[in-house]
Amino acid sequence: MADFQTDVPVELRINVYNEKDNLPNESVLYKDVTAVLTKDSIIDGTFTLDVSDYDIYVNSDFFVSIQFMNFFKGHIFLSGALLKTVFKRKYYGSWGKVISRFSCY
C-alpha cells in the first residue's frame, strides 16, 4: 500500500477472474470475499487478507480485483511493484490496461 488516508474504513470486495485473451474474464469465486481496510489493518505498508477459508482454486493465469464498496473522502494509492500488468474498469464496463501509475480516489 503506497498511501492510505480516508475519513472512514473502506469496505472491499476481492474477486478472482480467469483469463481470456489476456484480460480478466469470469469470476472463479463461489462466494463473496470481503474485508474492511483501516489504518490499523495496514502493517509495515502491507494489507494482508487470509483467503484460505474461501476454497479458491485456479489452474491457469488469473487476475485479482479490488472493488471499493463504500464512498469515502481521501485517497488510496496502491503499489504495483510486484504486478506484471494492471487493468481497471469503472462499474461493470470494459477492462482497460493502465499505462501509468495506478491510484484510486
UniProtKB/TrEMBL annotation:
It comes from the Bacteria. This is Uncharacterized protein.
